[in-house]
Amino acid sequence: MAHPMIAPSILSADFARLAEEAAAVAGSDWLHVDVMDAHFVPNLTLGLPVVQSLLKATDIPLDCHLMIENPGRWAPAYAEAGAYNVTIHAEATDDPIAVARDIRAAGAKAGLSVKPGTPIEPYLEILKEFDTLLVMSVEPGFGGQSFMAEVLGKARAVRKLVDSGELTLVVEIDGGINADTVEAAAEAGVDCFVAGSAVYGAADPAEAVRKLRAQAAS
Ligand code: DX5
Ligand code: ZN
């Protein structure tokens, strides 16, 4: 991968110091923001007011990963607020195309995410409505879990469609990305690597971002 992107996940940051934690990963391509509602996933994190404040605190494009039920109700507001990319879960809506169109109309890139057990084949036809495919490599809900290599087939399948010109899409992966797993994901054709604990658990988060990017490019 010539120009791998790294998206630190602030789920592993100190929520009381989000502006400083964003500054600590200056040079990152995207800042990944995990929105959880305690319904779609068994955890609760943050919502629109925090994203609105974060947008004022950093120039890094925000990559909002909505792990919420009824994403059509909320996703456009994240786009209107100024998020760069807004990703919804395929499992959370019966009408992903309508939500993607609303996100794009509100001015953001639209992403579709699939949980580890969700096959990609039923969604290949609708991926043209999206700008990003987020392949989950852990069960969504918590940081610090182990990477599930078995999801890489989904990244490979979509990479082929991108390389053949059938789709224009950023292939993103989320969960368990670290120095031991980033190369396998890169080899599968991933463009953008979300990393929470591997970045914010490091003594120097910006250096951790640079190292992951170099490893993904190797
Ligand atoms: C999990 C979140 C991830 C999480 C990744 O549901 O979507 O973005 O922060 O954390 P790590 O990199 O520690 O697996
Ligand atoms: Zn995430």
UniProtKB/TrEMBL annotation:
CDD domains linked to this entry: RPE (cd00429)
Protein name listed in UniProt: Ribulose-phosphate 3-epimerase
Cofactor note: Binds 1 divalent metal cation per subunit.
UniProt superkingdom: Bacteria
InterPro entries listed in its UniProt record: Aldolase_TIM (IPR013785), Ribul_P_3_epim (IPR026019), Ribul_P_3_epim-like (IPR000056), RibuloseP-bd_barrel (IPR011060)
PROSITE patterns, alphabetized: RIBUL_P_3_EPIMER_1
GO molecular function, a single term: D-ribulose-phosphate 3-epimerase activity
Enzyme class of the recorded protein, top EC level: isomerase
Function of the protein: Catalyzes the reversible epimerization of D-ribulose 5-phosphate to D-xylulose 5-phosphate.
Chain positions recorded as substrate binding sites: 9, 65, 141-144, 174-176, 196-197
Record-listed E.C. numbers: 5.1.3.1
Cofactor requirement: Mn(2+); a divalent metal cation; Fe(2+); Zn(2+)
Catalytic site positions: 34, 174
Family, as annotated: Belongs to the ribulose-phosphate 3-epimerase family.
Listed PANTHER family: RIBULOSE-5-PHOSPHATE-3-EPIMERASE
Catalytic activity: D-ribulose 5-phosphate = D-xylulose 5-phosphate
Keywords for this protein: Carbohydrate metabolism, Isomerase, Metal-binding
